[in-house]
Write a structure and sequence with these properties.
Blueprint (H helix, E strand, L loop, with lengths): L12 E4 L1 H5 L7 E4 L1 H8 L4 H18 L9 E5 L8 H12 L20 E2 L8 E5 L5 E6 L10 H9 L5 H21 L7 E5 L2
């Protein structure tokens, strides 16, 4: 699969999944995720997909520090309904990386390894997404303000031309390049900017 080179520059997320280890799915239960993996999951790369990946990455880094994160060790809460806006798309990415699932998730084996009921929506007092450790209840709220990411003046015009089949092949190519440039800047240029990705630590 060919994709923009910067995808490989985005930091990867390595986790320990006790269920994967128990079932012999991966050696030692270690799973390594990349941005390419979430692009495969969603079928595309956009600021929403990228921000969901990066918000999860930042939250896990904040909560686990230098420790190996445990997939299935987090409870995740969204402030909005799953069906509102892009919340569902973001939830799919977060579920893949954390293992946290809604009522339709894996119910576990003999009371352990369960993932269902670990993701909830329309939770009051939450800023966008809350990631909470199940063992000690420490949490972080993470949100993103993409209005701070510059947009090419041509992007909106090109999008409309592409959507209405009025774009030339070169304009189609340019639109894709400009779109992915915004994704690239979101993570690789503004990923550590706390005015863009806001993290509030709880107890």
């Amino acid at each position: 699969m060919q994709y923009p080179a910067f995808f490989d520059d985005i930091p990867r997320l390595t986790v320990y999944d006790p269920l994967a280890g128990f079932l012999g799915s991966t050696l030692g239960g270690i799973i390594d995720y990349s941005y390419v993996d979430v692009v495969k999951l969603t079928g595309h790369s956009c600021p929403t997909v990228a921000s969901a990946y990066w918000m999860t990455y930042l939250a896990i880094r904040c909560l686990y520090g230098s420790e190996l994160p445990c997939r299935g060790g987090l409870r995740v809460e969204f402030s909005e309904p799953r069906t509102e806006g892009v919340t569902g798309v973001m939830a799919n990415v977060v579920q893949m990386l954390t293992g946290a699932a809604g009522d339709d998730g894996f119910k576990g084996l003999s009371g352990i390894f369960y993932r269902n009921g670990l993701m909830n929506f329309e939770v009051g007092g939450t800023r966008k997404i809350r990631f909470q450790l199940r063992d000690n209840l420490r949490h972080v709220d993470v949100s993103v303000d993409m209005s701070r990411i510059p947009i090419s003046r041509n992007l909106k015009t090109l999008m409309q031309k592409c959507l209405h089949s009025e774009a030339t092949p070169s304009e189609l190519s340019l639109f894709g390049d400009l779109w992915q440039e915004r994704v690239k800047n979101l993570i690789l240029k503004y990923g550590e900017d706390r005015d863009v990705f806001r993290i509030i630590e709880g107890r």
